[in-house]
Amino acid sequence: MMMRCGWSAAAVVAVVVMVGVMVASPVAGELARVEHPTKEDGSLAVLVVGDWGRKGQYNQTLVATQMGVIGEELAADFILSTGDNFYNDGLTGDNDTASFQESFTNIYTADSLQKPWYIVLGNHDYTGDALAQQSPAIRAVDSRWTSINKSFIVDSDIAEFFLVDTVPFVQKYWNESKFDWRQVAPRDTYLSTLLTDLGDAMSQSNATWKIVVGHHTISSGCEHGNTTDLVAMLLPVLKTYGADMYINGHDHCLQRITSIDSPLEFITSGGGSRAWAGKFKQTSDKLEFIYDGQGFLSMQLTMAEASFAFYDVTGAVLYSWQLANHSLLFSPRDEQSGGAAAAAGDRAARSAMDAPVITLLVFLVAVAAATAAAEMPRMEHPRKGDGSLSLLAVGDWGRRGAYNQSMVAAQMGIVGEKMDIDFVISTGDNFYKNGLTGVDDKAFEESFSDIYTAKSLHKPWYTVLGNHDYRGDALAQLSPVLRKVDSRWICIKSFVVSAEIADFFFVDTTPFVLKYWTDPKNSKYDWRGVSPRETYIANVLKDLEDALEQSKAPWKIVVGHHAIRSVSQHGDTKELLEHLLPILKAHGVDLYLNGHDHCLEHISSRDSKIQYLTSGAGSKAWRGVQTANTDKVEFFYDGQGFMSLRLTAAEASLAFYDVAGKILHIWMVAKPATGH
């Protein structure tokens, strides 16, 4: 059964949805079919988002906003949802209009998104009233919503989209009573019929592009990994009938994988809201790109080629590629650094990088250059198998190897190997004297990639900016272009690294310092994305306080460039004493780690448990003791060196090293069993 109708510009959305409603009961052996025309030039533009329904939380609203922007730029024809449309347990019924509107109608409000939404169900949708999302009552609330018989076809002339209900394939769900299996059980019969119908439809298709859409992954390097039931039952059908790509959600990430034994592309767009799972799996296929944060996918199709792009919550293009007759054509474009404002004007495409497994963990989180108010970008970094975590910290280093930078780097490599470190923290002033001139500045390689060459240092480098970095192109250090040069590099102005037993809160301290604004002397600071100062600082403090409040980690560690307490040249930073320190005390922060002063020092607070740790001796040093301090100075050394930190749930131990690798100071503390 195929239903067709004439199209008018005034009724495109309504007619397509109405067609979906009318074919709610296809004949046996044939999937319901909806006709959706291409543009007049024969092209088609589609947005894809999954795992989104959280009433605007977890950056869902930010993703929706950027979908509206890109949807307008591309003149999107429709949107595909890859499932898990309403968390945590779907809709309670077709009268649950409040949840429906709060997570869908009231979120995706842009004019460009007032197009048909073609929907598959996810496992979370099945734990509620699964039939509710198929109901005409829901479509009466918002006519964009098109979900038909759980599996159906969208026929767009040059492309056919085969939307497949994958939840019933997963055997383990049938062992749980919470799933709504009405009109599905018995499982074997349902799956057999569905696979036969899909095979018949694909065999009859004459479309240039055959695109299968489901909720669950077939091939994935993210948390859930491959879905074995789909690999066994669905994948052979796709290969047999020449599917070009399989698009899914379920894993809360964006990724592209190419099959090693067929032309199939496996594309995940499940970053519609909560993300940053930070759990990865090996895949036997080729992992081309992975990003663990929130975002969505765009797809532009013509008879000759297909173009794809992944976007983050700022609208920045993370990665793009093209396909033509199953031949891969990358199309990297000119990169330009910039924040959200620049991204809106320059959708710079990233070509893929062939990253080893360890560097994939780095790349997945790095491109979140901006985030919603009251939510700092968050990335997950797993601890070791024994539950411990080891890291090195170094600051004020970027001098092309001079001033003993190379010697410090060599010893970092040795200690890093002994400790089997998980990552490195840079406390800022990464490139002297005036940061980078742009994303193509060779200083990045000459001061970073070519210096920290030890195998043990090929781990993620979580980085904050220092005042010298702000004297150049500050946004360049945030750009994904640098991660293409060296995939270890993760630089975001303020963000959180969650490592289970410890949360690390990275804070952009340079804008706090008033003299940089009022008396910059001969320096010019790059305040793009920061001005006005008061608003920026208020947002940073609010976001930090919210993140600290939500943290359940045994250890809370804050990282910034400027010192709160120091007896070296720069001394205490009065703006941080006034604005930042009260928040740290109020929320039980254990350690504050900084650079700025070119020394190694450890100061204990006299009125809280906070330990102030300076690791700013990555290159030029020897400035001596300059000021007194009201807190207790446990250790001070004004030569070059670095710091190590080892954490378990029960204790923390740190050590300072000089350029010969000699341990200068050790300190240990136990974590009370009751926590904070």
Automatic annotation (TrEMBL):
It is found in: Secreted. GO terms for molecular function: acid phosphatase activity; metal ion binding. Its EC number is 3.1.3.2. InterPro entries: Acid_PPase (IPR024927), Calcineurin-like_PHP (IPR004843), Metallo-depent_PP-like (IPR029052), Metallophosphoesterase_PAP (IPR051558). This is acid phosphatase. Residues 46-253, 391-599 form the Calcineurin-like phosphoesterase domain. Residues 1-24 form the signal peptide. Belongs to the metallophosphoesterase superfamily. Purple acid phosphatase family. Keywords: Glycoprotein, Hydrolase, Metal-binding, Secreted, Signal, Zinc. Its cofactor is Fe cation. It holds the Pfam family Metallophos. Its main location: secreted. One of its GO terms (cellular component) is extracellular region. Gene3D superfamilies: 3.60.21.10. It catalyses: a phosphate monoester + H2O = an alcohol + phosphate.
